[in-house]
TrEMBL record:
<keyword id="KW-0175">Coiled coil</keyword>
<protein>
    <submittedName>
        <fullName>Diguanylate cyclase/phosphodiesterase with GAF sensor</fullName>
    </submittedName>
</protein>
<dbReference type="InterPro" id="IPR003018">
    <property type="entry name" value="GAF"/>
</dbReference>
<dbReference type="InterPro" id="IPR052155">
    <property type="entry name" value="Biofilm_reg_signaling"/>
</dbReference>
<dbReference type="InterPro" id="IPR035919">
    <property type="entry name" value="EAL_sf"/>
</dbReference>
<dbReference type="InterPro" id="IPR029787">
    <property type="entry name" value="Nucleotide_cyclase"/>
</dbReference>
<dbReference type="InterPro" id="IPR001633">
    <property type="entry name" value="EAL_dom"/>
</dbReference>
<dbReference type="Pfam" id="PF00990">
    <property type="entry name" value="GGDEF"/>
</dbReference>
<feature type="coiled-coil region">
    <location>
        <begin position="634"/>
        <end position="661"/>
    </location>
</feature>
<dbReference type="InterPro" id="IPR043128">
    <property type="entry name" value="Rev_trsase/Diguanyl_cyclase"/>
</dbReference>
<feature type="domain" description="GGDEF">
    <location>
        <begin position="365"/>
        <end position="497"/>
    </location>
</feature>
<dbReference type="InterPro" id="IPR000160">
    <property type="entry name" value="GGDEF_dom"/>
</dbReference>
<feature type="domain" description="EAL">
    <location>
        <begin position="506"/>
        <end position="776"/>
    </location>
</feature>
<dbReference type="InterPro" id="IPR029016">
    <property type="entry name" value="GAF-like_dom_sf"/>
</dbReference>
<dbReference type="Pfam" id="PF00563">
    <property type="entry name" value="EAL"/>
</dbReference>
<dbReference type="Pfam" id="PF01590">
    <property type="entry name" value="GAF"/>
</dbReference>
<dbReference type="Pfam" id="PF13185">
    <property type="entry name" value="GAF_2"/>
</dbReference>
Length: 779
């Protein structure tokens, strides 16, 4: 924020000097305000900062050292509420002791002005952790503005007449109640009673505006007949006085007998001797009407200007209480709901499940837990991006809500996993419940220009048949889900006891894999790639193996799914990269010319720190990046082609000579045309096409009459990939070569390199130093 011009700054400093000369800020009133803000937002620091020419002083603070000051920060002079999610990224904040000494990262401030309008500082809320407060939206700014308005009002100096009697209502007591988090009715009841005590002969009430109606919150002295008449009023011209107040206009009625706006309530008012009424809107600092505050008098024209000033002050305090209540409700909702879909999250789901089970125990009822996982959602997410995936999840959530009853709970546990808690009349109703869920997902999903056939697998467990408590019930549903995904897609499985053993096996394997990664108990194998032109080894592909202490040597197919579900893929990649560079360093010292190719998972690629990690490892072990090749898949790249291309270019720029191979080419969603956008060096043809070349009615490089369509397709695809790859200057590699016939066909088609068990089996990486001496077998 630019520094103010000299003259306005002098005026501002003069106003600050007058404030300090008059005794400074009212500590007794400001501490409850600070406590209110800190409680509502959950921040450990709340302070009033006064800004002079050189520094920020904090005369009233919670969570700051006594007498703490900081060099001037113009954020404390921002003319409107200001929220900074992470102040450490701002040069202005970086040098402040608030950041350096106290570790402040998050800041939310409201301007503090004198009654004359001079900006002298800010009422601020600070946290030592960065925050994303965007979800709070206008509620957070409304709270800040309400705090600022209350702080400014507290600086007013009453005249002699006002000083002669206590302030009405007692602001400090009400602010303290709000700050302590007292229930809204208790705050408003204290406020109305205090106003009635200070103004004998007056009655007060507060109504809250909700859904186009005024809902009576408190009316401590109002007769029951009149209170009932005002209980839940629709805002229509028929209730003119209250409708006008709900639109933001003060309505003062000197005598209800002659005012047509009070016609609907005239009899009830006169029955109890009420003549004068004032309805004052309760307005947030953003201008939104939150409710109405009413004063009633037995005297005609009995509501004087002095009483109207007290009413206005009471309405401001009511606004602060209502704003705090709204923010608290928003925070509580966010803590218990999924931000993407609006469904209950894991915490609220557990709470509702416990309540449902407790009711079933009392009534001998049945409860079904349906755990649902979308089939192949990851493929959609990787291919089309997270924005498309998020919109698809939102539509799935909408359909699931529509497929169940109001008494059922649909929750999102995370990712593409949902759970449904359904009380049932009998266990026999569970299949129909699961089938309704699957049917709801059967129609195609349309997201922007994309159409998806999305299916789900469902695991079902029942109380009391399968479990007696919430945790066991969910664990049983997870076991059933695992069986459903392994059996057939778009199906449901009911829990059986044997499934527990399968789930326990998987969880045991995940724990063991995590331990193996921690102690480096995995082993890296390598499979050679041969150049068909020379017959010599051109490169090796690194393949991870796990020497399991009980199950022997495990191939990736036995544990990669466990690694993905357990969030271990990035750690696994990091281990493979380091081991690969250790061996490349050794090969360099021995003068061996081989490259080493490593697979890069989607988890590592999305993190965006691959270049930095590989650069640090290459520098540590003295490896030329040209000796390294990274293999990526189509699915990984296609979720955001432009971003993927940019990341690959950054990788190659930071690691000069690094090669990038596109693995399993031809299997994904994409077309060949996108290749020209990507900085690739190698295409690896998907092994499925190579496998189709093994049929005896294929003769290189032509297809015999009557060959199956899959064989003709495989030959056409490989021929096209070789031609396109060479046109783009790329090397073309064929994987999965397992016969002399395949090798001969691929040689005739012009493939550059081959890899497979026929030409070279994987072996421990430490044993392959001399593998280049073995030529490729004859076709």
């Amino acid at each position: 924020m630019p520094r103010p011009a000299a003259a306005p700054e002098r005026a501002r400093l003069a106003a600050l000097a007058r404030l300090r000369a008059a005794g400074g800020v009212p500590v007794g009133l400001y501490k409850p305000l600070l406590a209110l803000g800190a409680h509502a937002l959950g921040t450990p620091i709340a302070a009033v900062g006064l800004v002079d020419a050189a520094q920020v002083a904090f005369p009233v603070a919670l969570g700051l050292p006594a007498g703490f000051t900081a060099p001037r920060l113009d954020a404390f002079l921002h003319p409107a509420p200001l929220v900074v999610g992470d102040v450490s990224s701002s040069p202005d904040w970086a040098a402040s002791p608030l950041v350096g000494a106290l570790g402040v990262r998050f800041y939310a401030g409201a301007p503090l002005r004198t009654p004359a309008g001079q900006l002298v500082g800010a009422l601020s809320l600070m946290d030592r952790a960065p925050r994303d407060a965007s979800d709070l939206g206008g509620d957070l700014f409304a709270l800040l503005e309400a705090l600022a308005a209350a702080a400014t009002a507290a600086l007013e100096r009453p005249g002699p007449k006002r000083r002669a009697r206590p302030a009405n209502p007692p602001r400090a007591e009400v602010l303290e109640l709000i700050a302590r988090g007292a229930p809204l009715p208790a705050v408003l009841l204290h406020l109305t009673r205090a106003l009635e005590a200070a103004q004998p002969g007056l009655w007060a009430s507060v109504s809250r505006l909700e859904g186009g109606r005024l809902l009576l919150e408190v009316a401590p002295s109002l007769p029951n007949t009149l209170a009932r008449a005002l209980e839940a009023l629709p805002i229509t011209p028929r209730v003119g006085a209250l409708a006008a107040a709900a639109r933001g206009e003060r309505v003062l009625t000197a005598d209800v007998r002659s005012d047509p706006l009070w016609h609907p309530f005239r009899f009830a008012a006169l029955q109890h001797g009420l003549h004068a009424v004032c309805a004052d809107p309760i307005v947030s600092d953003e201008g939104e009407v939150l409710g109405t505050f009413h004063l009633y008098s037995r005297e005609v024209a009995g509501i004087t200007e002095e009483r109207l000033r007290d009413l206005r002050e009471a309405a401001q305090l009511a606004s602060l209480a209502l704003t705090r209540e709204r923010l608290q409700q928003r925070l509580q909702h966010q803590a218990r709901h999924d931000p993407l879909t609006g469904l209950p999250n894991r915490a609220l789901m557990h709470e509702r499940l416990e309540q449902t089970l407790a009711h079933a125990q009392r009534t001998s009822g049945v409860v079904a837990a349906l755990l649902l996982d979308l089939d192949d959602f990851k493929r959609v997410n990787d291919a089309l991006g997270h924005a498309t995936g998020d919109r698809l999840l939102q539509e799935v959530a909408r359909r699931l809500r529509a497929a169940v009853r109001a008494l059922d709970t649909v929750a999102r546990l995370g990712g593409d996993e949902f759970v449904i808690i359904a009380p049932l009349a009998a266990a026999e109703d569970a299949p129909a419940c699961a089938q309704r869920v699957l049917e709801a997902l059967r129609p195609p999903f349309k997201v922007q220009e994309h159409t998806f056939e999305m299916r789900a697998s469902v695991g079902v467990s029942l109380y009391p048949c399968d479990a007696q408590d919430a945790e066991t019930l969910l664990r049983a549903a997870d076991s059933a889900l695992y069986a459903a995904k392994g059996d057939a897609r778009a199906s449901f499985h009911r829990y059986q006891q044997a499934m527990t053993e399968t789930l326990e096996t998987r969880l045991t394997l995940e724990v063991a894999l995590r331990e193996a990664l921690a102690v480096g108990a995995l082993e890296l194998f390598a499979q050679p790639r041969f150049a068909l032109r020379t017959g010599a080894v051109a490169a090796f592909e690194a393949l991870v193996r796990w020497p399991h202490p009980e199950r022997g040597l495990l191939l990736p197919g036995c544990f990669l799914e466990v690694a993905e579900r357990g969030g271990l893929m990035a750690s696994l990649d990091a281990w493979v990269f380091e081991q690969a560079l250790v061996h490349l360093s050794r090969w360099q010292r021995l003068g061996l010319p081989y490259r080493l190719s490593c697979n890069l998972s989607a988890a590592s690629f999305r993190r965006g720190d691959v270049a930095a990690g590989l650069g640090e490892l290459a520098g540590r072990y003295g490896v030329d990046p040209a000796r390294l090749e990274l293999e990526v898949t189509e699915d990984l790249l296609m979720h955001d082609l432009d971003r993927a291309a940019q990341q690959l270019r950054q990788l190659k720029a930071q690691l000069p000579g690094l090669r990038v191979a596109l693995d399993d080419f031809g299997r994904g969603y994409s077309s060949l045309a996108y290749l020209r956008h990507l900085p690739l060096d190698t295409l690896k043809i998907d092994r499925a096409f190579v496998a189709d070349l093994a049929a005896p009615n294929l003769a290189a490089p032509r297809v015999r009459e009557g060959a199956p369509r899959t064989q003709r397709t495989a030959l056409a695809v490989i021929r096209a990939v070789v031609a396109l790859g060479h046109e783009l200057g790329l090397s073309v590699v064929a994987e999965g070569v397992e016969s002399a016939a395949q090798l001969g066909m691929l040689t005739a088609l012009g493939v550059d390199e081959v890899q497979g068990f026929f030409v070279g089996s994987p072996a421990p990486l430490r044993e392959v130093a001399g593998a280049g001496a073995a030529p490729v077998p004859d076709a």
